[in-house]
Amino acid sequence: MTEAILLVGGKGTRLRPLTVHTPKPMVPAAGVPFLTHQLARARAAGVEHIVLATSYLAEVFEPYFGDGSELGLHLEYVTEEEPLGTGGAIRNVASRLHSAPEDPVLIFNGDILTGLDIRALVATHETSGADVSLHLTRVEDPRAFGLVPTDGTGRVQAFLEKPQTPEEIVTDQINAGAYVFRRSVIDTIPEGRPVSVERETFPELLASGAHLQGMVDSTYWLDLGTPQAFVRGSADLVLGRAPSPAVPGRRGDRLVLPTAEVAADAKLTGGTVVGAGARIGEGARISGSAVLEGAVVEPGAVVTDSLIGAGARIGARTVLSGAVIGDGARVGADNELRDGVRVWCGAELGDGSVRFSSDQ
User: Fold this and answer.
1) How far apart are CA 62 and CA 270, in angstroms?
2) Tell me: the pLDDT tens digits for 215-230?
3) How far apart are CA 308 and CA 320, in angstroms?
4) Annotated catalytic residue within 11, 24, 162, 267
5) What pTM was estimated for this model as a whole?
6) pLDDT tens-digit readout, 254-277
7) Three-state SS at 281
């Protein structure tokens, strides 16, 4: 298998304000755009050609990754004029594929951090003779996901989108967002209109008698759709809990990129990453957080499980816990922001103006 499609067109609405100026796959995780980790893992699994299906802020991707040669890849970019959904995006890039009709094509979403054994998924697809194979994982609470029950051989029996009642929850197996398609199946997806693979393509294939195979792989898996999940994913990459060959440094409690400045008595723990040009002041304590490029954390600030956007400034002695600070925002001294608070890009909070706020 030598090629793949990477779906990176989503607006990342749940991740705002992180995605106001940056498409979700380009938000830094463990020091590099999240997409870098996905591309590097695909290359390590033997993928050579990847087509990126772009839409929102599409102009950002190619200037950063170019033709992919630095990663040992051949990258191409296809931009949707109007959002086409997962299935529509796959169909929209089909003309860029080089595979023969019976060849496997790997497809994965640009917002999933996973330790999936990509080679094993492809091998399962080939040995089972499936038309489409899906990566499945098990979760404790599947209500926010699409359930995928399978028989004893792993053959998919149904697709149940986001069940809510106990009677609907017939399995803990969910669609984990990575697939292998037989190349010819991609051409059966309707062209030029929005299509959801989850709600339309897969159920219709199943109804027509197509062979859909599930492979349960319960290694690390995290949907990075919320700021809290994104911060956790970045920390897990730094700590080595989530695998990636693209982490730019040694794994451990902290990752400090070149040109960042950290005071000698500042304490960085829990997989904290400090981006290039960022500055951490004296006595600051930062745990499980991401401080992006050029941000400043002033002396005595305490930051836990939070993300501080590029060029933002956190005032002295301010406490952040589970907060997201947008690019270029200013939070004055002696504030306290907790429990999912989001400060918009470029916003300014004066000294001591906020002691606490609930999720917004």
Assistant:
1) 33
2) 999 889 998 888 999 9
3) 10
4) 162
5) 0.90
6) 999 999 999 999 999 999 999 999
7) coil
